[in-house]
Amino acid sequence: MALCYWKPLSLLLLLQCLLSVSYASLGDADPNYRACVGECEVSGCVGQLCFPQCNSSSNTGPWYTQEPLYLQWQKWGCQGDCRYHCMVNREKERETLGQPPLKYHGKWPFKRLLGIQEPASVAFSVLNLAMHFHGWISFFIALYYKLPLREDKTAYYEYVGLWHIYGFLSMNSWFWSAVFHTRDVDITERLDYSSAIAVIGFSLIVSILRTFDVRVEAARVMVSAPVLAFVTTHILYINFYKLDYGWNMIVCVAMGVAQLLLWARWAAVSRHPSNWKLWMVVIASGLAMLLEIYDFPPYEGYFDAHSIWHAATIPLTVLWWSFIRDDAEFRTSSLLKKSKTKAK
Ligand SMILES: [Zn+2]
Q1: 251-261 average pLDDT score
Q2: CA atoms of 125 and 117, how far apart (whole Å)
Q3: What's the gap in Å between 1 CA and the centre of ligand 1?
Q4: Which own/partner contact pairs does 142-148 have at CB distance under 8 Å and 24+ positions apart?
Q5: What is d(CA 203, CA 224) in angstroms, rounded to the nearest whole number?
Q6: Separation CA 7–CA 286 (nearest Å)
Q7: 73, 76, 307, 341: least buried by Cβ within 10 Å?
Q8: Contact by Cβ (8 Å): 245, 237
């Protein structure tokens, strides 16, 4: 998922992130690297190694090889291969000179596995997706098969719809995160960023509605409308105007910090029976942030800070859905108690 997920400690992190964005170009600003990529895109080779995708000028293949989309795909493939192998060579040279690894195009030099650019981040994204799916299914089962239902077969819990949408958006964003870390091109980056913003924005809405117990439909619309409008505008802005990493970071940090504070305040004042789960998630998310501050290069070429950050959210997702199930149970039982006392 995009770099901007859940971020408290705002100012410190913000500075760090802005710095790391500008720092990101150190590797690819290197003239040797640039010369290598430039040469490769023309010749299709880095040293003895040549890439078939770079020879798209031959107009002799089957019909689909003449399609613009196919040609574009080939261009990406060629550029990707050139950049990767130039980076590998450059990093080997640096290593023999005893120099530390550098970032290229905003990323550490990762080892590819089966053509996957960042295998660890992909694996952890898939696991996050799986945990969201499991959490969402068990929420669904608890709600409709374990807890009592109203006479019209609907659930008593008032936040059902919101958590369903949240589950869908979360799974969507982890899916695009896995795609993005598999192959980082313009379109996959935009899809990853956009779906991450969507889930952060939506979970901000959920946090406001849940922690302030907003149950009246009209009030919910009034609260969500400005957030939805802002999030939609922001997604359109980064997709069709400018993908401004610094500004995007500010937006994500602000929305992430806001919801963590809302949940923390609620955990402190409400007498929710599963308060401790809430505290655990809020504190652990804060601690996991430290991984993004100490953005270290990949260990053994695979495990960098970002991938460990994705690993850290896996147990948090399990705990979070368990809190959501508890909340459904808690609200249902208190609503039933109320209706029983009314009946007396
Ligand atoms: Zn990611």
Answers
A1: 87
A2: 13
A3: 3
A4: 142/325, 142/328, 142/329, 143/328, 147/328, 147/329, 147/332, 148/332, 148/336
A5: 11
A6: 7
A7: 341
A8: no
Tell me, in angstroms, the distance from the centre of ligand 1 to residue 165's CA.
21
**pLDDT tens-digit series, residues 65-120:** 666 677 777 777 788 888 888 888 888 888 888 888 888 877 788 888 887 888 99
| pLDDT, mean of residues 195-206 | 93
Its pTM stands at 0.80
- Write out pLDDT tens, residues 67-76: 667 777 777 7
What residue ranges do the domains of the chain occupy?
A: 10-20+115-343, 25-96
| Cα-to-centroid distance, 207 and ligand 1 (Å) | 23
Cα 33 to Cα 280: distance, rounded to the nearest angstrom:
45
Range list of H helices, the chain: 10-23, 26-29, 31-43, 68-96, 119-141, 160-182, 186-211, 217-240, 245-269, 275-293, 305-343
- Give the pairing of strands 45-46 and 49-50: antiparallel
- The alpha carbon of 89 and the centre of ligand 1 are apart by a number of angstroms equal to 25
If we measure between CA atoms, which residue out of 331, 24, 337 comes closest to residue 160? 331
